[in-house]
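User: Show me a protein chain along with its predicted structure.
Assistant: Here is one chain, sequence first, then structure tokens.
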Amino acid sequence: MQVLIRQGKYRNFVVEDTVFQLVKGYKQGKLGGFVTVRSRGMFGPEHDVVRIRVGERDNIEIGQFEESLPEFFDSPTATEDDEQVMERIAKRFKILDDMTRATISGDIRAMIVSGPPGVGKSYGIEKQLEIAGLFNQLSDRENRYEFVKGAMSPISLYCKLFQRSESNNVIVFDDCDSVLLDDVSLNILKAALDSKKTRRIHWHTSSYKLDHEGVPDNFEFRGSVIFVTNMKFENVRSKKLADHLEALQSRCHYLDLTLDTMRDKILRIRQIFNTGELFRDYDFSPEMGEVIIDFMQENCKQLREVSLRMALKIADLTKISDDWRELAKNTCMK
């Protein structure tokens, strides 16, 4: 059995919305309620079976859950204050900007960016591509950058890579996680992301689409790829898929934005708010922005998602009624 700990503490580690293997169920002790779990190294390799203080029984749920504890014990959020968390996140997004520019220049040929939905993964990449595209326009050069979103079949992936196969082209696959779940697509993607000097991609099956569009059955791919995903590779349970993802990671740079907890997401939203960008198009005071984010933090476990998009949805409701909180509870919460 597993246990989901919504709020708890082990020594100086804060435990929040984390799944563990259950060893012993809820017990009441001198310092309050606790459960005994197998931590799998989260608190250091020497702390395997531990008691986590949870206070009331309502702070836990016993059952089987899709999420599992990562196989590594480094959990930075547990020991960081809010400023340190925001500094860590800011550094990661700065690295994302730097790596995107390196991909545009061709110094990096492939990158995978992992993070939860609605935290601004695509925004930073798109901004860097827009800047590079503006230089192309000023010099009358063709725009070599393209965003591809949504589901994609293997043959469509093959054709898209061919269209952008020349050097200095960059394809950004955004919200295309279905590619990672298809064996043929994965093999095509692995060929495109390969670290070899020459990357040749083949399509061995006859196809009307290839014949109709004049796409050859093999070509050399010289372009660059950025793959943006909501999937955290370390948490994938399927052995088959995990092996494929490990092969992808070995071929390119993999950047995890380390937004793993509800607290991380809320602080990321505050970070964007502090820049003045989040509610830039809304006619209300900074104090009102603070009220909206405080509302999200107070109700984070009931919101359908904690994201920048959700902050904007709630901001829209303030235009409709002074009773926007009630509207949010009925339209934005589970």
